Amino acid sequence: MKRIGIFLAAALILLAGCKGGQQTPADDSAEGTEQTTENNEQTMTKETPSLPADKWAELGDEPLLRIETTDGAMTVKLYSETPLHRDNFIKLARSGFYNGILFHRIIQGFMIQGGDPFTKDSTKIAQFGTGGPGYTIPAEIVPGKTHKKGALAAARRGDQVNPAKESSGSQFYIVQDADGCRHLDGEYTIFGEVVDGLSVIDKIAAEKTDLRDRPLRKVEIISIKPAK
Question: What is the pTM of this model?
Answer without folding.
Answer: 0.82
